[in-house]
C-alpha cells in the first residue's frame, strides 16, 4: 500500500506547542485518504520548536496531492498550536512543501495547498477554486473594517488585542502593553520618583539633566549640549525624526511678511531676501495644520497651549540650513511679532522651542501615527481580506504587515483613546490629536507615499544644492532596492500587463485600500485598480517602504532627538509670547513641561525607540511562504543590494560627528510593530 512520510514543524515562539490530538487527511486528484492520527507512542509530539516525522499509509493511490487537511481536537484543555509547515514525501520520492505559519485554535482545522504561488487564473480544478474562495470568505468574516473615529482611515473591527484573529496577535501581549512598557522605561531611566510630580516646574535647563543622564547616547548627548544652536535646530529638519516637513520656498507667503531688512544680518551672499528665494536658498516649514487645534484640557490644574508657527530657514555658504525668522501664529499683526536671530537671546530661544514643540506634535500624530501606522494597517487588512495565502502578492506582503494591526489595536486601547496615555503628557491629548488626523487626511495622497515624488514635491531632490540631507540620500537607495525586488517578483508571476489587469483578487485588494483606507477620496490619488506590471511594482514598493523604511526613519530616532525635553517639549504651559524683549529664562522654564509630564514623555520616547524582541529586519524572510527558486534568487539579490547600502551608510557615518543610521537596512524592521 502507498506510504507517505509527513514532516510537521511546530513554531518556536512561546506556547506554540500542543498536547491536543492532531489528525491529517490527504486530498489527491485520484482520491482522499482517511483521517490519520499523528502520534508516536511514548513520545511528546508537537513540542515548541519540534520537527516531527510520521509515516502515513493509505489504501490506494491518491494521485497528485492537492490539499492537506489538518484537524486539532481537544485532549484535556484546548491548547492552541502554531503550525509552521508540512513536508510530504510521496511514494515516488518527490517532496511537496505545504507552508502554513498559522495558529490552529480550539477544535480547529486548516486546509493547506502546496507552496507554489498561484494566481486565480492558474486554478482550473474545482476543489482548488473552492478552497481559494472559502479561505477569502472566512477571512472577510474575521477581518472586518471599522471606523474608529470619523474621518480616520478605517481600521480593524476589534475593541482590544484579544479580540483579534489569533494569527495577527502578538505572541506575548505583555511585551506590547504600553502602560507597562512606559512604566518600565521610567524605572530603567531611574526617573520614576518624578513621574507623579505634575505642576512641579524644573529650576533651570541644567535641572532637566536629572532625568536625562542615566541612559544617553552619542546623539542625545550632542542634542543636550548643542540644542540652543541655530545649526542644530536647522539640522533636525533634514535628519531628525521628522525630516519630511521642510520644503524649498519659491514665494514668501503673504501671511509671513518677512523683509530683507529683518534678516539681512543672516544672509551671507549680499543678496536681497527675494533674490535668495529665486536662487533656491530659502526654505520654509509651516505648521498651519495646528492652527485652531484644541489644546489638552484633561488636567484642570495645568493649562496647556499649542501654536501654529511658520519658520523660515536659510542655506548658508557652508550649505548648512539655519533658521532666520519665526512667526508663532498664522495671522500677522502687532501681537504676533516675527522673531529673529538678532533679537534678545531668550526671545529667539523661546521662539525656536515653540517650533520644536509644534514639530513634535506633527511628528507624533501625522508623520508617525497616520502616515506609517494607520496606512500600513489599511494595507494589512485589505491584504487579509482579498488575497488568499496562495497568491504571490500575499506571500510577498505578509512579512511586512506582521504585528501592525496588533500594535495599532493596542494603541487604540491604551494610547490614543479617551483618557489614554497620550493625554498624560501631550498638549494635543484630549482630542487634539484626533482633530489633527482628520485635517491631515486631505494631504494623505498616494504621491506623498512615493518617496522620490515626495522629495521632489518639496523641492528637496538636489544633492548638489542640499548635500547634507541623509534621510533623502539613504531613503532613495532603499526605495530603489525595494522597487527592483518587487519588479522581479511581479515579473515572475505576471507575464504581461494584461495578466495584472485581469487578476480579480489583486484588483479587489487595491480597491479595498482605496474605498476603505482612503475613504473613496479621489483627491487621495490612490488607484482604484492597477493596470500594468510597472504600476503594480510601484504600488508594492509603497506598501513595503512605508511599513519598513519610512517607519524606521521616523520612529527609532525618538529617544535620540526627543529625550532632551527642551528640544522637543510635548506640551507648553504658557501661551506663545506676543511681544519682544520680555522673555526671561525663568519664563521659559515655567513654560516647558513640568516634572511629571517630562518623565512620561521620556518613558514614551524611550519605549518607542526600542526594537521588538526577535526583530526581523528588511530582507529577512524566515517564514518560507515562497518555495520557487526564481523568487528565492530574487530575495538573495535583494539582501545583497541591502548589504551594499549598509556598507555605504557605515562608510559615510565614520566621518560624521552626528551619524545618520535610521535608514541603514540592518536597522529597518520589516514591519510597523512598535
UniProtKB/TrEMBL annotation:
SUPFAM superfamilies: Lipase/lipooxygenase domain (PLAT/LH2 domain), Lipoxigenase. The record marks 103 as: Essential for stabilizing binding to COTL1. Its cofactor is Fe cation. Its main location: cytoplasm. Transmembrane segments: none annotated. Pfam families: Lipoxygenase, PLAT. One of its GO terms (biological process) is lipid oxidation. Binds 1 Fe cation per subunit. It is found in: Cytoplasm, Cytosol; Cytoplasm, Perinuclear region; Nucleus intermembrane space; Nucleus matrix. Residues 118-674 form the Lipoxygenase domain. Pathway: Lipid metabolism; leukotriene A4 biosynthesis. It comes from the Eukaryota. GO terms for cellular component: cytosol; nuclear envelope; nuclear envelope lumen; nuclear matrix; nuclear membrane; nucleoplasm; perinuclear region of cytoplasm. It catalyses: (4Z,7Z,10Z,13Z,16Z,19Z)-docosahexaenoate + O2 = (17S)-hydroperoxy-(4Z,7Z,10Z,13Z,15E,19Z)-docosahexaenoate; (5S)-hydroperoxy-(18R)-hydroxy-(6E,8Z,11Z,14Z,16E)-eicosapentaenoate = (5S,6S)-epoxy-(18R)-hydroxy-(7E,9E,11Z,14Z,16E)-eicosapentaenoate + H2O; (5Z,8Z,11Z,14Z)-eicosatetraenoate + O2 = (12S)-hydroperoxy-(5Z,8Z,10E,14Z)-eicosatetraenoate; (4Z,7Z,10Z,13Z,16Z,19Z)-docosahexaenoate + O2 = (7S)-hydroperoxy-(4Z,8E,10Z,13Z,16Z,19Z)-docosahexaenoate. Ca(2+) 1 binds at residues 17, 79-80. Residues 2-118 form the PLAT domain. Its EC number is 1.13.11.34. Ca(2+) 2 binds at residue 39. It is a peripheral membrane protein. Belongs to the lipoxygenase family. Homodimer. Interacts with ALOX5AP and LTC4S. Interacts with COTL1, the interaction is required for stability and efficient catalytic activity. Interacts with PIK3R1; this interaction bridges ALOX5 with CD40 after CD40 ligation in B cells and leads to the production of reactive oxygen species (ROS). Interacts (via PLAT domain) with DICER1 (via Dicer dsRNA-binding fold domain); this interaction enhances arachidonate 5-lipoxygenase activity and modifies the miRNA precursor processing activity of DICER1. This is Polyunsaturated fatty acid 5-lipoxygenase. It comes from Macaca mulatta. The lineage of its organism: Eukaryota, Metazoa, Chordata, Craniata, Vertebrata. The gene is ALOX5.
